[in-house]
Amino acid sequence: MSDLLTAFEEYLSVTKALDALTVSSYLGDLKQLENFTEKTLTKLDTTDILHFLASFDNKRTLNRKLSSINTFFHFCHIQQFTHEKIKIPMAKVPKNLPKYLSAEEILQGIELIDRSKIAGLRDYALILFLYASGCRISEALSVQRSDILEGWLKIRFSKGEKERVVPLAPIATEALDAYLKEQSMASSYLWLNYKGDQLSRISAYKIVKKYLGVSPHVLRHSFASSLIIGGADLRVVQELLGHASLETTQIYTHIQKQNLAETMHSYHPLS
Fold first, then answer.
1. At what angle do helices 46-53 and 59-78 cross, to 10 degrees?
2. Residue 111 reports pLDDT greater than 90
3. What tens digit of pLDDT does each residue of 41-89 get?
């Protein structure tokens, strides 16, 4: 890796405080750009970049590549490695409404879990934990025992390392206590595999998929959706989810409107 990319990697990790997976994705996108154009990054102009971006049909993929490129050239500009400040606008992407499950669907699904074994206690507690906290799966798997105190969860490993604190529902803390009571392996982390190692993202995905038929991220959507339907303020939901911008949280407002419409159609005599 070139000295410039090494410096950019340090900027992402230290200054921007991005997680290792995001940093790796940024660097991979830039290497792909170099390979495509057959030029060093500092020799590129806007036309080169647009030719590269034109090779992607999916707008979400295009925007992810573009985010890496814009961040890199912003870094180069503030470090005076380049004179031209390159910034290309993002493509407009239609908003997909988030998929979510109701509390009844989640509770019904986890009733199938055999809690007579440690793995079952873990799976049951993990699903409730995700639904009760709204954690990203990466955040949940990084939680340590000391991060939970008197029903409150401190999330230290969120995007950009922005710490936040969220309350946990009693049913989730009870399930967690039952699991930890039987968990004899020595580790500071909550979620462990049968070897006593930190549970992987793939394993967590398989657990949630097995009982609920969805990915762990759907439980984050379900957490937010349940709050919105219950009447929670959007800014409170933003704080609990750890969104830097309220605009990101506003994707859930359609759920509030949908719930109001269903209520009106069900109870208004003219409906």
1. 160
2. yes
3. 888 888 888 888 888 877 778 888 888 988 998 898 888 877 667 777 7
Domain that residue 212 falls in: 103-216
Q: Which residues are catalytic?
A: 136, 159, 217, 220, 243, 252
What does DSSP say about strands 164-167 and 152-155: parallel, antiparallel, or unpaired? antiparallel
Three-state SS letters, the chain: CCHHHHHHHHHHHHHCCCCHHHHHHHHHHHHHHHHHHCCCHHHCCHHHHHHHHCCCCCHHHHHHHHHHHHHHHHHHHHCCCCCCCCCCCCCCCCCCCCCCCCHHHHHHHHCCCCCCCHHHHHHHHHHHHHHHHCCCHHHHHHCEHHHEECCEEEECCCHHHCCEEEECCHHHHHHHHHHHHHCCCCCCECCECCCCCECCHHHHHHHHHHHHCCCHHHHHHHHHHHHHHCCCCHHHHHHHHCCCCHHHHHHHHHHHHHHHHHHHHHHCCCC
Q: How many domains does the chain have?
A: 2
Best CA proximity match to 41, nearest among 79, 13, 2: 2
Please answer whether residues 99 and 252 qualify as being in contact, where contact means their C-beta atoms are separated by less than 8 angstroms: no
Q: What is the pTM of this model?
A: 0.63
Check whether residue 125 and residue 193 sit in a common domain.
yes
Regarding whether 157 and 209 lie in a shared domain, the answer is: yes
Task: Specify whether the CB–CB gap between 153 and 168 falls below 8 A.
Answer: yes
